[in-house]
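Re: JFZ structure - here you go.
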Amino acid sequence: MRSFSYLIIFLFFSCQLKAQTNLIDPAIKTPKAVLDNFMDQRFGMFIHWGPVTLRGTEIGWSRGINVPADDYDNLYKEFNPVLFNADEWVKTAKDAGMKYLTITAKHHDGFLLWPSAVSDYNIMNSPYKVDVVGLLAAACKKYDIRFCIYFTVLDWHDPNYPFHKPGQKNIDAKADMKKFVLTMKSEIQELVNNYHPYMLWFDGNWESPWKNEYGIDIYTYIKKLDPKVIINNRIGANSEHTKLGPEILGDYATPEQKIGALNMNDPWETCMTICNQWAWKPNDSLKSLKECIQTLAKTAGGNGNLLFNVGPMPDGRIEKRQATRLKEMGNWLKLYGESIYKTKGGPFKPNEIYAATRKGNKLYIHVFDKKSNELILPALHAVLVRKAFLLNGGAINYQQAAGVITLQLPAQLPDQNDSVIVLELNTNAESIPVIS
Ligand code: JFZ
């Protein structure tokens, strides 16, 4: 009897394991080399945009809350962003040192920024009548920026989706999820076939109508259209976006509005707004340059990417102050980019004083703040510092005793936001285990 129950338990767990590891056929999962390439980019531009900018409220979330649904759903009839210039947006990303760009082709309000044969609720029925997604894809190609597409799962506008506004609890009996998933697939087919995105950034997967089986179906479908497309971890029925694992669908984790934790195994990308709101809001508070640069350095220090969001205005332009802030980040990256792009994070955990990145035999210490004349780093055993110097500057005096590295900081740090000290090691910095 006893061994029988063990058998049952064993069978139960092995079935679970099988179900988990077989979520997606390993033969079609995005190859590691593709994801490694994605993680080398480190910095991308997120763009939240649509007719809702005419009201200055949050995209999707304000529908039926701050803006009556009927008003919201008719905004596209006035949406005429005549100053939109795809090249200018992409140049703004390029000058910021960004390597990829992700546009909200479809957000929770269901409006499509591309000419679609699937739904009339699209940009060609606005007075503007311009293929925003297509022009951005072309501009990205021109400036060598990888083009990515945000696509929502939940759609509060579609009658076939059971919820029609944020927080709704009662299911619309007239909704039809099977038809809804078919619509999604047709839209995704248009996007993948016409614009060849590097990545699809799904979102809105946390409401109860969405099931893992739909996510598996969509992931598999995309891979048939283009095996190389990268897919984030918001396509299965999970609401925990910071995690990755065999039970979670998708290629990389997506912590939101917070810097992800140091992780040398799972690829991740933090998405964060340059102001507070995702979509444009007049006079929204803008992050300081210090916060912007340190966010990027702490993200790289945790071995992740930063997808930094701007919300262009209803006339089609990115706000001058947002573009200026991005340019300032780009200026910093021109000097210090070596310590960000194509690096790994760690081995130290990022904190308020410093973060570390590494490449080859170099360890880059990003110094945020000078609390005293010395910066003491945790012990690195069996690793010797051969040389220490400021990136773009002179030598740094240091001692190393029992592994502990003590750096003598200059009287004044050369960069008030992030000064980088390079430590040349006697070994490959990338193989040092994480110091916890
Ligand atoms: C989601 C979107 O809803 C948001 O509009 C934006 O596009 C961002 C990048 O992703 O953010 C979320 C996700 C989950 C919740 C709220 C916002 N939630 O569960 O309350």
